Amino acid sequence: MRNIILSILGVILIIGSFFIAKNLIDNKSKPKPVVDKVVKTVYTDTVSNTTIPIIIPANGSLVAKQRVELYAEVQGVFKSGNKLFKPGQHYKKGETLIQIDASEYYASVQSAKSNLYNTIAAIMPDLRLDFPNMFQKWQNYLNSFDLNKTTPTLPKMTSDKENYFITGRGIVSSYYTVKNLEQRLAKYNMSAPFDGILTEALTTEGALIRSGQKLGEYIDPSVYEMEIALSKSYASLLKVNEEVELQNIEHTEKYKGKISRVNGSIDAATQTITAFIEVKNEQLKEGMYLEANLNAKEEPNAIEINRNLLLDDNKIFIVKDNVLDIMAVKPVFFSETTVVLKNIPNGTIILNKPVIGAYSGMLVKPFTENPTTTKDN
C-alpha cells in the first residue's frame, strides 16, 4: 500500500513539473511591452540682453539722528516744572527739561560773588591814588556788577603793574572761583538742546537725584538714521547723498532716504562695511524696522533669472531643437531670489521654470504661452 501511494505522488510531481516548465517557456517567448517615450512640456524664454540695475537689499531699525542721554551732574531734589517729566512729552529748544533744587548751592554762589565784589571795592582807594588812569574802568566794573546776574568778565589789564597789583589782592583767583561755581549752578537746570520728545524717563518729580544718575533719553523725532551692514564687495558702490528707497516690513508704505555716511573701515570679523541712511517722515518712529533697496550700479548686456534655474557649476539649461543642453554663464550679482547673468547670446532659448529630473539630451516640448518673462529693464 505504501509503495502504491509513493508511486501516485511521483506521477503527480512529474506531471506538475511538466506543466510548470511549459508555462515558463511560453512566457519567455512573449515580446516585451514597448514603453512610450515621455516628452515633458517646459516653459521657456528667449534671451534679450539689456541693462539690468543692480539693487542691493538691506534692512535695519531706525534711530534718531539727534539723541541725548540725560545724566545728572549734581545732587538734589527734582523740582516740578510746567510739564511732567514723562515719556512722550514734547519740548521746545531751550525749554526746561529738569530742574533740581539748588537753593543751598545758590546761597554759596552768592556768598562767593559778594566776597569778590567786596575785594574789588576794598582796592578802589589804592587804585585812585596809585593808578588813577585805571581807576575809572574798575569803577565801571563795580557799577555793572549785579549779584542776581552772571558775573561780568574782569577788565583787561594793560600793564604789568596793574596785573601784579590786582593778582596780588587775590581778585583773579576769586573771580575764577566764582565762575566755576556759576558753571556748576547752571547744571541744576537742564534745558532742551533742540525741539524734541522725551522717549525715556527714569525718575519723577520729588525724587532725590544723585550725581551720575541717568535720568532719561531725549530725541529729535524729525530725522532718523538706519544703520546697515553690507558686504565689503559693495564698498566701492556706496555713494554719499545717493537716494535710497525704503519700505516697511509689511510692504504697505514706502519712504525716500539718502546715504548720509559710509564708514571708512571694514569690520574685520564680519568683512562688512557700515553705511547710514537718513530718512525724514512724520509717520516714522524710532525703533521701526525698515527694508532698503540701494541702487548700486547698472550692468549692461545682462539678463536676470530666478536663482533656482542656475546649476551649481554656473551653468543653465537651454533648449536646442526640442532637446535640453547646458550652457556655461557668468553670474555677476546674486539677490535673495534672482541672479544677474552675462555671456548669454541674444535669441538663446532658456528654461523659465525648473524641470524635475532634467538632464542634457532630454527631449522636451516648449510651452507656447509664456506665463512669466525674464526680468528685463
UniProtKB/TrEMBL annotation:
GO terms for molecular function: efflux transmembrane transporter activity. InterPro entries: Beta-barrel_RND_2 (IPR058792), MdtA-like_BSH (IPR058625). Residues 68-215 form the Multidrug resistance protein MdtA-like barrel-sandwich hybrid domain. GO terms for cellular component: efflux pump complex. Residues 227-297 form the CusB-like beta-barrel domain. PANTHER family: HLYD FAMILY OF SECRETION PROTEINS, MULTIDRUG RESISTANCE PROTEIN MDTA. This is Multidrug efflux pump subunit AcrA (Membrane-fusion protein).
